[in-house]
Design a protein that fits this description.
The complex is a heterodimer of chains A (1283) and B (226). Chain A is α+β, with helices and mostly antiparallel strands. Chain A is 55% helix and 9% strand. In chain A, the strands form four sheets. In chain A, strands 12, 13, 14, 15, 16 and 17 form a six-stranded antiparallel β-sheet that branches. In chain A, strand 1 and strand 2 form a beta hairpin. Chain B contains ten helices and seven strands. In chain B, the strands form two sheets. A five-stranded antiparallel β-sheet of chain B has the order 2-1-5-4-3, with helices on both faces. Classes of the chains: A alpha+beta (1283), B alpha+beta (226).
């Protein structure tokens, strides 16, 4: 035995490890592949051994070889063996190898499910971490389905490291297993508020990515993200969120309006270039989406453009590049603002960096005007001459053509110039855009009648010099395509040729046969056209010599084409040969056939709209699916199919190319022509051949008679072989500018009235007319995009993720848990538990939420009750309210909203919930200034009110201890509703003007927010009386702004009880040693440069709040409004506390002047901050709660008992949640657990037990003893007080 | 026109990548000034041949650029397409190239590369190309702490380094047990000059030793009774 071991060890000693392999490869540079194949053999033997260490070593080597391009998938099974090793070292090697070479279709993956599950649930954090990382690389649909549940469990891990990875992995799970999205989404959403910034950032990452692909499903998350955006300190996350908003704004313009303000603020304040850049990008997106209706969006655009200019002028090439990139986005909607920076763009065109030049080119596209187009194109052409590398040159060429041809040649005033440009472009070597030039040439020749003759002349020259164009370098380029255009133009417009015979000769000579087939075909066909023209003119002049010459020429040259390998060429050539011989025969008999021959080719060319073919309406009674003949028998089907296809293809192509190919006999032609004319005459939609007499009022076309067609003095130099040069056009341009421009100005202005022309302010004359008709369309059809096409490819996994997330979960929507594959009995139980847990968990969550809502509601009711008392005292004051309450119309509006109660019983929400969530968003978007920040943050609870009556009914069923008090409260609630509804409407109306302030409010940055209140006081969450005298009553409420720099926000409401207006209100609140008021509207300052991280501590950009120096007046808060009788107004102040474990008090006073009295009155105030003020229960979830309890962090304990509590259990809970700012985590019967987190991160957990005999016990656990005891003391006193 | 070109690229892409989901970071490549790959990480599946082509193409695109031009590049036809960009940095002899889509911030990725390199520098103490050549596995482990499945996982360098050190510690703890095979034996042989050992190894001795047929000892021994 020992010997064997020694043998093994000895062998292994000589095994190569990874280092040896690498060294070996480096030492065998010449014989590398041989060496590696030798190593592969060794690895194979190593893999056959039992020792895992040897295998791991082998797999490590394989991973390296994979990088060098060797396929190692054959070792898949061994890799899995190594992955399953209990030792982290080997496991890591295995997972690395798997992540490098496995992919979703790897078959061995199906063996890994249980192993990976084991690793995910491992005690060792890094085992699970490795598994998560690996899984992210090779997850397959099956793995995603089977492991989704385990990944979900990891979301609630106590270790942020695992939570973070699990969150990211979820994205991959969703992609492969879209069914997981809905059940998992609530938990994922929770992670947005995870205490660990890394996890939070990961969650943002995932949701942003999901939302980017299917934005509409994530609109409802906008408030959450908005909150994160205004409170986050992590630039990475901010960038993601800002990018996400960029994707959301096109769907919801209101969101854009809301965003513009904080984004511009960020643009102003941030010094992190990356953040600045993304902000600009999103602002641009916003501005595009709300291009109208924003009064001052010009200012924003200007700001963006200015900042971008700074970027572009920066010496850093990266910033320059990005600046140009963003600029091109603005260009689409606001070309004017960008055009101002033309100098900069042209400068960038000379940059040494190709990426930057390309970006600058993009910009140029939108910058041209009629005035500048010639200059810009000239510059581009000089660049093209200088450019090395065909890629950039091609790009330039393409851009030139794009610039010139955009919007139906909108900017071209001189088409001779443009044709010359195109001809010049033909001389570019090795271009791939021959087809593009060709189509432009044809386009111009067909549509611009005035320049046709010139074009034809140029084309004739091109044909004559074909050998120059199709030089030896042409093999790799597509420049020969221009000959296609040249031949066609010369043929089609042969009557304009100066010397048709010469052109015909140039077409038949030379190396035409070496051209591509389709070009040859065009050549051949156009020879016929030329021939027909020559014959016709020659017959008129009785030039029989010419006829003979031309006929012989063709008969001599055409046989070459007849024997062509290309079918099309062959067919056409032989057809033409026959026609020519026939003509020859006729001439021998002395017959004149010229006119008849010409008839073959006559007929107008009209543009056909791009979609015309599709739009041809189906005639009545035509069923394309019906069999024309009896269906053939089964056996023949296949053949028939093939046959049928062929027929269709043929028919189709002949239709398309009728102009060129279809050559019916003359009688037929004549008939067709007559029919067509008749049809044209009767068809009002038909565009008549001459644009001049177009009967259709065409908004697109420029009226011909308004544009003077200047006849250009064609100088002889054009005829120089080797084509025209562009130089003369600079002169022409100048002449035009200087000479005729002025006196035409007035004339034009008057004429252009009402004409849609985007360049109406440009006063350059168009020399030529472009036919810009859309094209022929079937009768009654419209050119519209009535097919909305999802442009994502069929197999895009994001298509499957287009899932509505607002709909509540149904009980059967749970993550699958597999039970039957399990090997061990124990595991079986475990997973069974899991399966049970999930469905029960979701309704439970719902329940607690409903309860929360209910509580909130009750609270409001109480408030209303208070108000009601006041109403009784002063009936005149709240007349409005009463009026509203009895308004029957509004009553009905509300009743629509009351959902069916029954559905709530099981905790499964019905469709109304969906309505609610969309309501939430609407509400959030249209929220009025008067909202207190806490209600901004969870708007959910606020608007949930319509569903409350039903849920409280449900409540009444389940809870037997229903007091009369509650019943009464319910009545109040019903009365409360109309008022609410009305308010909401009003809010929506009011929104636009107030958005700005609202922002700052949510931001928590503005301390003295002054706002108007509606006449009816809104129910405030848990307001306490601050002070009261005969004139004024002041109440306040506090809220911990969790996440916003540990602030406490205090809402103070002033209610006038005087009959006279009260003015000059002034609060004096000196800071105490431990409690300070924040006075400056802080600006968010990001400290770093465009680096996201400061050099030392990466990741967290420093987030600073500028603190103003304390000045003597600082304790004064002047309220810039006055109170009218019966009015109430609010202000908000933020405070920070150094120690949140002890209660604080703040003394101060309010002075005011009542109208009429000369002296001011004072009331002293005492703001109390019990410790519960500093608590917030927002991040409470059952999972983190249990984690907390089991983690042993909660060292401090305390408890109290109230033996004779007069309150019902719900009331106690209400008191705790609203007065104590705690959140209910779980509530079973008469027991509840609550959670709260202090601003400084201390946890407080309470267990409330309520026994039938009004015996109340509250047990508390916390990380901070003083905090806990103070909190419990406070709760005890409040509960006692009410007694 | 332009569309035609892009379309053909897209199609090219579609057939080459077995419809693996698009990720935000599609690939991370590290190669030296001669185009030799030092680290390749593809978050979208390509077969090995394709991977090598991509590396070659990327190298050709990147290497012909001056050092003082911008760090963004479009036009990789094999990897990417319209939505994807190459973002790279050049350090001494190495190019670090990230292929990312439009959901990532360009400047952010540049910073991420910087973090990656700084982390390498800390972990290897003055990192140089040789470290990457001989410890490509370790480089992978470091990268795995930064980027996971094509998504940015962590950007905080101290956090990253803590995680890596933790894992290295874990590996060391396991060391004595498992790698008794190689490492302890190696330690025993430490006296022998490393060069000599590797020379022996390169002679392909192992194979020869393995080929030596020892008498089937165990069977013989089994019969012996002491």
């Amino acid at each position: 035995m020992a010997l064997r071991k020694v043998k093994g060890n000895l062998e292994r000693m000589f095994d190569k490890n990874l280092t040896d392999l690498v060294r070996g490869i480096r030492n065998n540079k010449e014989t590398e592949s041989k060496y590696i194949s030798q190593c592969m053999e060794e690895i194979k033997t190593e893999l056959r051994q039992d020792n895992l260490a040897v295998k791991a070593n082998a797999v490590a080597k394989l991973t390296y070889l994979q990088m060098l391009g060797y396929d190692i998938s054959w070792a898949g099974f061994n890799i899995i063996e190594v992955m399953s090793s209990p030792k982290f070292t080997y496991k890591r090697i295995g997972y690395l190898s798997a992540s490098q070479c496995f992919h979703q279709d790897t078959e061995v993956l199906m063996l890994t499910t249980n192993m990976i599950r084991k690793d995910l649930n491992s005690h060792n954090m890094y085992d699970s971490g490795t598994a998560l990382t690996g899984l992210a690389c090779f997850i397959s649909g099956d793995l995603a389905r089977d492991l989704a549940n385990d990944v979900m469990t990891l979301l609630t891990s106590t270790k942020p490291y695992l939570r973070k990875k699990a969150v990211l992995l979820l994205y991959k799970v969703f992609l492969k297993f879209p069914e997981a999205l809905r059940p998992a989404f609530p938990r994922l959403k929770e992670k947005l508020e995870d205490p660990d910034p890394g996890v939070q950032s990961a969650a943002v990452n995932v949701i942003c990515e999901l939302a980017r692909k299917n934005p509409k499903n994530y609109l409802s998350l906008a408030p959450v993200f908005f909150k994160l955006m205004t409170s986050s300190t992590n630039n990475w996350m901010l960038i993601k969120i800002i990018k996400l908003f960029g994707a959301l704004t096109p769907l919801e313009p209101r969101l854009g309006k809301k965003l513009i303000e904080p984004l511009t603020n960020l643009i102003h304040s941030t010094s992190a270039m990356s953040l600045l850049y993304e902000c600009i990008n999103t602002v641009i997106a916003v501005l595009i989406s709300i291009s109208s209706g924003m009064p001052n969006h010009n200012a924003s655009i200007q700001l963006c453009v200015q900042k971008l200019r700074i970027l572009i002028e920066d010496s850093d090439q990266n910033l320059k590049y990005l600046g140009l990139l963003a600029m091109s986005k603005i260009l689409k909607t606001h070309p004017k603002s960008v055009q101002a920076h033309k100098d900069l763009v042209l400068q960038c065109l000379d940059d040494k960096d190709e990426s930057i030049r390309l970006r600058a080119l993009d910009l140029l596209y939108g910058m041209v005007t009629k005035k500048t187009v010639m200059e810009i194109v000239r510059r581009l052409m000089t660049h093209m001459d200088r450019a090395e590398g065909t890629m950039y040159r091609d790009e330039l060429l393409q851009k030139i053509i794009l610039i010139c041809s955009q919007n139906n040649f909108q900017y071209i005033t001189n088409f001779e110039w443009y044709v010359s440009v195109l001809v010049e472009l033909c001389r570019m070597e090795g271009t791939q855009h021959g087809g593009l030039i060709a189509s432009q040439l044809m386009d111009v020749a067909i549509r611009v009648v005035a320049v046709r003759e010139f074009t034809v002349g140029q084309m004739a020259l091109l044909l004559d010099n074909a050998h120059v164009i199709v030089g030896p370098a042409a093999a790799r380029s597509s420049i020969a395509e221009v000959l296609y255009a040249a031949a066609w133009i010369c043929g089609e417009f042969s009557q304009l040729l100066a010397n048709p015979k010469a052109t015909l000769e140039s077409m038949v000579r030379g190396k035409v046969v070496s051209l591509p087939g389709h070009i040859q075909a065009i050549y051949v066909h156009n020879m016929l056209k030329l021939y027909a023209h020559i014959i016709a003119t020659a017959e008129e002049e009785d030039d029989s010599e010419m006829i003979e010459e031309v006929t012989n020429l063709l008969l001599e040259r055409l046989p070459v084409f007849v024997s062509s390998g290309d079918l099309e060429v062959q067919e056409r050539a032989s057809c033409i040969v026959h026609i020519v011989t026939y003509v020859q025969k006729c001439h021998k008999h002395g017959d004149k056939v010229g006119a008849d021959l010409a008839l073959l080719m006559t007929g107008e060319l009209n543009p056909v709209a791009p979609k015309a073919q599709k739009k041809v309406p189906l005639p009545d009674g035509l069923d394309l699916d019906a069999w024309i003949n009896d269906p053939p028998s089964e056996s023949e089907e296949e053949e028939d199919d093939a046959l049928e296809k062929e027929i269709f293809v043929k028919a189709d192509s002949s239709y398309k190319h009728r102009k060129e190919k279809y050559e019916p006999s003359e009688e037929e032609l004549q008939k067709l022509r007559d029919a067509r004319r008749a049809e044209q005459a009767s068809n009002p939609y038909y565009v008549k051949s001459s644009a001049l007499s177009s009967p259709r009022p065409n908004h697109n076309s420029i009226q011909v008679d308004e544009i003077p067609v200047t006849a250009i003095d064609l100088n002889v130099s054009l005829k120089i072989p080797g084509m025209t040069s562009l130089d003369k056009y600079q002169v022409v341009d100048g002449w035009q500018d200087g000479g005729k421009k002025r006196h035409k100005k007035q004339k034009k202005r008057s004429k252009r009235k009402g004409q849609v022309s985007s360049s109406s302010e440009e006063e350059i004359n168009r020399m030529h007319v472009v036919n810009t008709d859309i094209g022929e369309m079937p009768e009654g059809a419209h050119l519209s995009d009535d097919y909305e096409i999802d442009d994502r490819p069929e197999d895009d996994p994001h298509r499957a993720l287009d899932i509505n997330l607002d709909e509540p979960l149904s009980p059967n929507e749970v993550l699958p848990t597999r039970t039957h594959y399990e090997a061990h009995a124990q595991r079986k139980i475990e997973s069974n538990n899991e399966a049970k847990l999930i469905p029960s968990e979701i309704p439970l969550k719902m329940k607690t939420r409903n309860k929360k809502e209910r509580k909130e509601k009750k609270e409001k009711t109480k408030k209303v009750k208070k108000e009601e008392k006041k109403v009784k005292k002063k009936p005149s004051r709240d007349a409005n309210l009463i009026l509203d309450l009895i308004d029957p119309l509004k009553e009905t509006v509300i009743s629509d909203k009351v959902p069916v109660a029954a559905n709530h019983i099981n905790g499964i929400a019905d469709a109304k919930n969906k309505e609610k969530t969309s309501d939430d968003l609407d509400f959030w978007l249209s929220k009025e200034l008067s909202q207190t920040p806490e209600s901004c943050m969870d708007g959910t609870t606020k608007t949930a009110s319509p569903s409350t009556p039903s849920s409280s009914k449900d409540d009444s069923k389940s809870k037997k201890t229903k007091t009369k008090k509650e019943k009464k409260a319910k009545k109040e609630k019903d009365r409360d509703k109309p008022e609410k509804k009305l308010k909401k409407n009003e809010k929506e109306i009011d929104t636009l003007s107030r958005n700005r302030d609202e922002y700052e409010e949510t931001n928590g940055t503005v301390t003295q927010e002054v706002e108007e209140k509606l006449a009816v006081p809104e129910p405030q969450p848990y307001s306490r009386l601050l002070a009261e005298d005969s004139h004024i009553r002041i109440v306040y409420s506090t809220a911990a702004m969790d996440g916003v720099m540990s602030e406490i926000l205090v809402c103070i409401k002033f209610i006038s009880q005087s009959s006279k207006p009260i003015s000059k209100l002034q609060l004096i609140l000196p800071d105490s040693s431990a409690l300070k008021m924040i006075r400056t509207p802080g600006k968010l300052v990001f400290e770093t440069g465009y680096r996201l991280f400061p050099p030392k501590e990466m990741g967290m950009a420093v987030f600073q709040r500028k603190q103003r120096q304390p000045d003597p007046q600082s304790e004064l808060v002047n309220l810039p409004w006055s109170l009218d009788p019966g009015e109430s107004k609010e202000t908000q102040l933020s405070f920070t506390a150094e120690d949140v474990t002890i209660p604080h008090k703040l003394r101060g006073s309010l002075s005011y002047i009542q109208d009429g009295s000369s002296s001011s009155s004072d009331i002293s105030l005492r703001l109390e901050f019990p410790v519960t003020t500093f608590l917030s229960g927002k991040t409470a979830s059952r999972a983190t709660f249990t984690d907390l309890l089991s983690s042993g962090q909660l060292s401090a304990r305390s408890s109290f008992t109230l033996p004779n509590c007069p309150w019902s259990f719900p009331e106690v809970l209400e008191e705790l949640t609203l007065g104590g700012s705690l959140a209910v985590v779980e509530c079973v019967d008469q027991t509840a657990s609550l959670y709260g987190r202090s601003l400084h991160g201390h946890h407080v957990c309470l267990l409330v037990k309520y026994q039938a005999s009004h015996h109340l016990t509250i047990d508390g656990k916390s990380t901070e003893g003083i905090l806990l005891s103070n909190a419990l003391d406070h709760l005890k006193t409040t509960l006692m007080q009410k007694q | 026109m332009m569309c035609r070109r892009q379309l053909s690229e897209c199609q090219h892409l579609r057939c080459s990548s077995l419809d693996t989901p698009p990720t935000m970071i599609k690939a991370i490549l590290v190669f030296n000034n001669h185009g030799k790959p030092r680290l390749t990480k593809f978050y979208q599946y390509f077969n090995e041949e394709m991977q090598q082509q991509i590396i070659k193409e990327t190298f050709q695109l990147v290497s012909k650029r001056d050092d003082n031009v911008c760090n963004f590049l479009e036009g990789g036809s094999l990897i990417g397409g319209a939505d994807y960009k190459l973002i790279y940095r050049h350090y001494a002899t190495l190019y670090f190239v990230f292929c990312v889509d439009s959901s990532e911030s360009e400047l952010g990725i540049l910073d991420l590369i910087q973090v990656f390199v700084e982390t390498l520098d800390k972990c290897f103490e003055n990192v140089c190309e040789l470290d990457l050549i001989f410890h490509v596995d370790k480089v992978h482990y470091i990268l795995n702490e930064l980027v996971m499945g094509g998504m940015v996982l962590e950007t905080n360098m101290t956090e990253i380094i803590t995680r890596i050190e933790d894992q290295n510690k874990l590996e060391k703890q396991e060391g004595p047990y498992n790698s008794a095979s190689t490492s302890s034996l190696k330690a025993g042989l430490a006296a022998a000059p490393a060069r000599a050992v590797s020379a022996v190894k390169n002679m392909n001795l192992p194979q020869q030793i393995k080929d030596i047929k020892l008498p089937d000892l165990p069977a013989a021994i089994k019969d012996l009774k002491f």
